[in-house]
Every structure is written in structure tokens, then in C-alpha cells.
Amino acid sequence: MDISLEPVTEDNWRACAALSVRPDQQAFVNDVAYYLCMCHYGSVWQPLAVVSGGEVVGFCIWGVDDDRSRWIGGVVVDAARQRTGIGRALVVALRDRLAAEPGCPNVALSYSPDNTAARALYASLGFVETGEMEDDEIVARWSPRDPAGTGGPAGNVGATR
Ligand SMILES: CC(C)(COP(=O)(O)OP(=O)(O)OC[C@H]1O[C@@H](n2cnc3c(N)ncnc32)[C@H](O)[C@@H]1OP(=O)(O)O)[C@@H](O)C(=O)NCCC(=O)NCCS
């Protein structure tokens, strides 16, 4: 799947905000508009548009924690485009981009225990559950020096929901 991670701009923010997930997935994520506000008014998270074939097909946010681990959040693939490899491609691209930053000990994310699709996706990419929880979500980490994953210490990047 050919995707690119692009800045959110005045030209594409509407397409980002128009992304939607299936009704049964709405409990797992916030609206993209919420994430955009969180990024704009907060100081931790940065947004990215996921573009394929010139169209915005997904969205994600990332941030740096106190312990310098990088967090991926707000992963959304538009309902009409799910199950075509976009989610896998975006997580791999963002994981590898963040892991390559100097001083990054690991890349972390979290998900609801009920989110079987996300859990399967992240596990297949080598994210390992560490036993940490972030609010009511399971934390999993991927280390560039330990792709099999033994995780790392908890940080304090803050919840996205
Ligand atoms: C989770 C999500 C991002 C996956 O995106 P996607 O583009 O559909 O994923 P892909 O097509 O790349 O599939 C990758 C893997 O995810 C898992 N997966 C995706 N959809 C699934 C489903 N409906 N049921 C079970 N597993 C699923 C599978 O392991 C799949 O690998 P496979 O196709 O080899 O079986 C997407 O379902 C989504 O946006 N969900 C709603 C928002 C959400 O839950 N975000 C994550 C918050 S932590």
C-alpha cells in the first residue's frame, strides 16, 4: 500500500476532519476534529494526514514523552478504506520515522482491550504489551534496538481520549 504521511494544512484539514470510522469503532477513538484541536491547543501532540492516491484516507498523531519515547495516537483509517493495508502502512511508516529520531528509546501506543483489530495490527508489527495501562487502555511498545520488544518504563505523555 502506497501512502505518505503529510502535514495537516489549510488545504487538507477539512478532508482530515471528514474521516469517519464505523459505528462499532467510535468508542475506540475520538473524532479527528477533536484530535486536531488537541494538537492545536496543546503542546504535546502533532497531527499527520495519511494520503494515498492524492486523497486523505487516514489520520494519526504523534508526541514525545518525558522519557523521550515517541507515542503514536489517534490512528484512524476512513471506514470506506479499511482492510486495504492503509493501517499497517501508516503505523510502519510512523513507527520507523519516530524510531529513527536521535535518543528515541522506543515507540509506544495504547488501545482499548476490546479493540481486536488494532490489537492484532500492532502485535503483528512487533509492538509488545508491557503491562502498563494508560487510563483504560493497554500500552504496547516497540524498540528499534529490540524489535522483539521488552518495552520500557512508563512516561507521562497523557491520554488522548
Ligand atoms: C485499526 C485500523 C486503524 C486498522 O486499519 P486498516 O487499514 O483497516 O488495517 P489494514 O488493512 O492495514 O490491516 C492490518 C491488520 O489489522 C487487523 N485488522 C484490521 N481490520 C480488522 C478487523 N476488522 N478485524 C480483525 N482484524 C483486523 C488485521 O490483523 C490486519 O491484518 P490482515 O489483513 O493481514 O489480517 C482501522 O480498523 C480503524 O481505523 N479502526 C477504527 C479506529 C481505531 O480503532 N484506531 C486504533 C485506535 S488504538
How would you characterize this protein structure?
- The protein has helices spanning 13-17, 32-41, 86-99, 116-124; strands at 4-7, 45-52, 55-64, 70-77, 107-111, 128-134, 137-142.
- It has 161 residues and is α+β, with helices and mostly antiparallel strands.
- The chain is globular, with a radius of gyration of 15 Å.
- The protein has a domain at 4-107: Gcn5-related N-acetyltransferase (GNAT) (Aminopeptidase, 3-Layer(aba) Sandwich).
- The longest helix has 14 residues, at 86-99.
- The protein contains 4 helices and 7 strands; from the N terminus they run E-H-H-E-E-E-H-E-H-E-E.
- It has a 7-stranded mixed β-sheet.
- The mean pLDDT is 93.
- The chain binds coenzyme A.
- Coenzyme A is lined by residues 21, 25, 28-29, 75-77, 82-88, 111, 115-118, 120-121, 124.
- Residues 142-161 are annotated as: Disordered.
